[in-house]
Batch of 2 targets.
Target 1
Amino acid sequence: MKKHTTETEWIEARVTATNKLNKYINKVVPIVLDILNNNHKLKKDGELNKKTSDLIREIIKYNPQNRIHCYIDWTEHSAYLKFKLRYESSQFNHNYVENHILLWRNERQWNDKKGEFELINTSLNDSFIPLKTKTTKQVINVIKKHNNLIDKMEALKEKAVKNKEGYNNYLYI
C-alpha cells in the first residue's frame, strides 16, 4: 500500500480513481442502456423483469481486480445505475469515488378501484453523455482557481462589512 503524504499525492490518487471510474461508466452504461432499449418491460412495482435483470447483472457484476461496485438502485419512481470505487488515500484509510446514472423514470397514477398507484408510463434515459477524464494538473489548476475565488469573495465580504460600519441604522441590507 502506498502512503500518500502530500496534498498533490492525495489529489493524484483521487484523480486516478475518478478517471478509472469514468472509463468504466463509459464502457458499461451504453451496454446497459442498449439492453433496456431492447427489453425493458417492468413489473407492476417498477422493478426489472428477471431476464433483463440477469442480463444486466452479468455485465455489472463485481470484479475484484477493478474494485468497482455497480448495482441498480430502483424505486417505484425511477432507477439509477450506481457506481462506487474504493481507493487508498493513505496507509490505513480508504476513500470512495461514487457516481450514478439515471436509467429510467416511472410515471404513476392513483387507481381508486384498487386503492394503489399504478405504473402508467416508463421513460428510458436515452441521453447518456460519456464522462471525461482529467489530468492531475487540470484538477490542481481548478482547485487553485476555486481557492482564489473563495479568497476574493471573503475579501469583498470584509470590505462590505467595513463599508457598512457606522450606518447600521440607516441601511437595510
Note: The beta strands are 68-74, 78-88, 94-111, 116-124.
Target 2
Amino acid sequence: MNVCDLTRHATIAPFLLGPVVPNRIVVKAEPGRIDGGALVLECEREQALAIVRVLDDACDRQRVPRVRMYVKGSRNGWKRVPLRKRKEDAP
C-alpha cells in the first residue's frame, strides 16, 4: 500500500494495518517517484484483500483518490494492482 496515500485514512489505518505490519517494512514500489514508497502487509492474501476493500470503500465515501496497491512481481519488482471501477465510472 502506498505510504503517502494512507495519510488520507489516518483515523482507520492504524486499526486496520497495525496487526498486519509488525515489522513496518517499506519498499520502493515506484522508484524515481517521491511518493513511491509502499508498506508491506505481512498477512494472508485474503486478509490483505479485505483490508484493501475497506480502504477502497472509505475512499469512495470520502470522494478521494484511492490508495495505490502493489504486488510483488516475478522479477523481484513491484507492480501496481489495477483498481476496480467505481459505481459512477461504470458504463
Note: Helices lie at 3-6, 13-17, 45-62.
